[in-house]
Amino acid sequence: MSGAALQTSNLWQRVCRELRPLLDEEKYNTYIQPLEARLSNGKLRLIAPNRFVRGWIESNCLDLLRQACEKSGAEPHVELLDRPLPRSGAAPAPAKPLPPLPGSRLSPHFTFDAFVTGPTSQVAYDAARHVAKHRAYNPLLIYGGVGLGKTHLMHAIGHQLLAGRQQLRVAYVHSDTFINDYLNALRKVRASYGRSGSDALVEQFKRSYRSVDTLLLDDVQFLAGKESSQEQFYHTLNALLQDGRQIVLTCDKLPREVAGLETRVISRLGSGLMVNIEPPDLETRAAIVLAKAEAAGALCPGEVAIFIAQHIFSSVRELEGAYRTVEAMSRFRGMPIDLPLARQALKNHVASVARRITLEEIQKLVANYFQVRPSDLRSPSRKRAIVRPRQMAMALAREYTDLSLPDIGEGFGGRDHTTVINAVRRIQELRGSDHNLNQQYKSLASILAQ
């Protein structure tokens, strides 16, 4: 090692010793270790391996890096590039123009501020906020049923990343778009120019997708059964991950439950963090209705929000549609939104889906499912085999009936409302940590919603 190289190495080691205690190990290894240090005219020049590392440092620890340089006796001149500097005397290689971003624009309405959280979406929301701020858990996969907010969170991540950093290349792409882009690359030029032309267009496709800083890919399940598209998808993920680019994906279920997804794709999707979104509870559904009314500048009484929430169970999308129906009738008739108007606006929907679910029906269903007697749920028994089904029945009663907390408690052997509150909270906590219990709850809920 030359004297200059040794001097640079020693200086960079001193800077790293100053900086390392200020960052956690994951961030240090991801963003600081890959930096290449060079000394030029007494200034320490740092070269990042790619645009992702450069952007993170500029946004999160540039001041810390400069302070560490100053404490180590260097005048910091941080030059962060996504390619190595040319060697002395060599002409810099001309940079290829970046290809157009694939996909469509982010929805301006899908932001973190506009997302209403609840017990069934809090973990996914927190994970999305963390990824948007720190670029961690790579890839992040959000899974759950249709219309629950997966796409909303994905767009919100994109908006947060672009805030103040418009130079970032953030691409939101539906899986159908990815598939069509790849198939068009194969078809178009193959018809006109033959095999070599097709290869050139496929390379253009690859470069388009692999030049992004963040890829937001929606509805991964649509790749199932499409072998050639899955192969391109797999290699695209690998290329982006190896280059330190952020990937966020959504799926309607756990990847391993999607028939037709290749094992290697499932393994790659599971290498980061997978979080679930489930249908919102009653309180969250009502809060969503009120939030939509506020965003529209309308006054929606709480009793109307509760009424809508009591009759729409399956998705946020249907909940929004029901509120818009009520709002439209209010506007057309020049009448304020109230409960009679909401009943009139939604009468056909309510008549088709909202048979009255009784407490006795819930108790009978839960008792049969767990092979106990309905009377056991109303008894004072504290046996675990009885307590958990009783708590489950209380949580379902809170979700699928309009009974008050005291009325629910009365129906379970004269218990008070605090017992019901504790039961509901306990089931919510267990649903987030116990997969089997969560599946049990979802199975019971699906039967009640039929």
Keywords:
450 residues; alpha/beta; five-stranded parallel sheet; three-stranded mixed sheet; 8 strands; 9% strand
Overall average residue pLDDT: 82
Order of helices and strands: HHEEHHEHEHEHHEHEHEHHHHHHHHHHH
In helices, the fraction of residues equals 55-70%
Head-to-tail CA distance between termini: 74 Å
By DSSP, the count of extended strands is: 8
Strand order of the largest sheet: 5-6-7-4-8
Shape: elongated
Brief write-up:
This protein has 450 residues and is of the alpha/beta class. The protein is built from 21 helices and 8 strands.
Description:
There is one protein chain. The chain has 450 residues and is α/β, with parallel strands linked by helices. It is 57% helix and 9% strand. It contains 21 helices and eight strands. The strands form two sheets. Strands 5-6-7-4-8 form a five-stranded parallel beta sheet, sandwiched between helices. The longest helix is centred in the middle third of the chain and has 19 residues, at 175-193. The radius of gyration is 28 Å and the shape is elongated. It starts with a helix and ends with a helix.
Strand and helix layout:
Elements: H1 3-19, H2 25-32, E1 36-40, E2 43-47, H3 51-60, H4 62-71, E3 75-77, H5 122-134, E4 140-144, H6 150-162, E5 170-174, H7 175-193, H8 195-210, E6 214-218, H9 227-242, E7 246-251, H10 263-269, E8 273-277, H11 282-295, H12 302-311, H13 316-333, H14 339-345, H15 347-353, H16 359-370, H17 374-378, H18 384-400, H19 405-411, H20 417-433, H21 435-449
Parallel strand pairs: 2-3, 4-7, 4-8, 5-6, 6-7
Antiparallel strand pairs: 1-2
